[in-house]
Design goal:
Layout: H1 4-27, E1 31-35, E2 38-41, H2 42-58, E3 63-66, H3 71-80, E4 83-91, H4 93-98, E5 104-111, E6 114-121, E7 128-132, E8 136-140, E9 146-148, E10 161-165, H5 171-180, E11 184-188, H6 191-199, E12 205-208, H7 215-227, E13 231-233, E14 253-256, H8 258-273
Parallel strand pairs: 3-4, 10-11, 10-12
Antiparallel strand pairs: 1-2, 4-5, 5-6, 6-7, 7-8, 8-9, 12-14, 13-14
Length: about 280
Amino acid sequence: MPFTREIEVALAAALAAADRVRALYASGVEVDWKGHDDPVTTADHEANAMIVAALRAAFPDDGICAEESDTSESSEAAARGGRCWFIDPLDGTKDFVQRNGEFCVMVGLAVQGRAALGVVVSPVSGVALVGVPGEGSWSIDPSGARTQLRVRVVASASEARMIGSRSHPHPRVTALAEALGVTDLRRRGSVGLKVAAVATGECDLYAHFGRGPKLWDGCAPEAIARGAGALVTDSLGRDIAYDTAWLGLDDGLVVAPAALHALALAELARLAALP
């Protein structure tokens, strides 16, 4: 398995950060605001610092792009390309604040602009997901037991289970579900947990539209989804590029097994062409 040391370090850092997030979740934290409808907590900052410190110590020559670090430094690190870590220390801060359990810690590595490794940990369940595209993905429960992940393949789009954002619902998600004949449309917080739902086979299609997600939202879950057999692109069918100074995933995300992914992109193109 490639990236053996990287997986070991990233998983240990994410698990330690998740432990701290869990403790703060239990005790309660004060909420600050980075902008309109954009909360941040002590848990975000402390988890960010823990993960960054662990990665800098282990891989001092790698770039680091982290949500709660300096934005200009993160942008420069991503744009440099090569090897760059993408950290979302608390994906789903709104859900953390609302205390619905739908949040996670994410650490991803991009190499030459493509997602190459991902770790996602749920502080509530203690379950970690790890993936390397082309090699595989697996879940690790708190006892250390590992389970291989594979996407579920449905016979027709109408049988698919689709998942979208709870905090940022978008009319294009509903329109896509209707166009595909999907009747099972679920909502959840955290980009990482929604992509994980596809990787584990709980759901079959994740689509997000509109501004909001950033590169640190995409890298780790993309690697896990691809390792489990899904395709991951933007809403126009393009690969997600991580070697860019622009951190926003403004053209959305579409995650699904190959056949369903192709159907979703075709329907999105058809819907975009409608007057």
